[in-house]
Amino acid sequence: MAKLSVEEVKHVAKLARLAITEEEAEKFAGQLGAITDFAAQLNELDTTNVEPTTHVLPLVNVLREDVAAEGLSRDLMMKNVKDQQDGLVKVPPIMAE
């Protein structure tokens, strides 16, 4: 098992903006080493006849057809607008002048 150095673990923690103690760095060094060893084992597999996939299950999105439809008329929409001016919806300002 290739154990990562404590300095490497601290560097990764710093990149991830994590505060870890010296004891945690030593503990994580062994754990991260085991993970990298497992990844190395996966690289040894023969995947010549395996098609690349993005998901293990054959999922397909079910989408409706994009069809243009008639929208509401301006008069009907403006009927429920509390404050309007020149056919536009008037909203309170969000920035002070």
Automatic annotation (TrEMBL):
Pfam families: GatC (PF02686). It comes from the Bacteria. The keyword Transferase applies. One of its GO terms (molecular function) is glutaminyl-tRNA synthase (glutamine-hydrolyzing) activity. InterPro entries: Asp/Glu-ADT_sf_sub_c (IPR036113), GatC (IPR003837). The keyword Coiled coil does not apply. Its EC number is 6.3.5.-. GO terms for biological process: glutaminyl-tRNAGln biosynthesis via transamidation; regulation of translational fidelity; translation. Keywords: ATP-binding, Ligase, Nucleotide-binding, Protein biosynthesis, Transferase. It catalyses: L-glutamyl-tRNA(Gln) + L-glutamine + ATP + H2O = L-glutaminyl-tRNA(Gln) + L-glutamate + ADP + phosphate + H(+); L-aspartyl-tRNA(Asn) + L-glutamine + ATP + H2O = L-asparaginyl-tRNA(Asn) + L-glutamate + ADP + phosphate + 2 H(+). Heterotrimer of A, B and C subunits. Allows the formation of correctly charged Asn-tRNA(Asn) or Gln-tRNA(Gln) through the transamidation of misacylated Asp-tRNA(Asn) or Glu-tRNA(Gln) in organisms which lack either or both of asparaginyl-tRNA or glutaminyl-tRNA synthetases. The reaction takes place in the presence of glutamine and ATP through an activated phospho-Asp-tRNA(Asn) or phospho-Glu-tRNA(Gln). Belongs to the GatC family. This is Aspartyl/glutamyl-tRNA(Asn/Gln) amidotransferase subunit C.
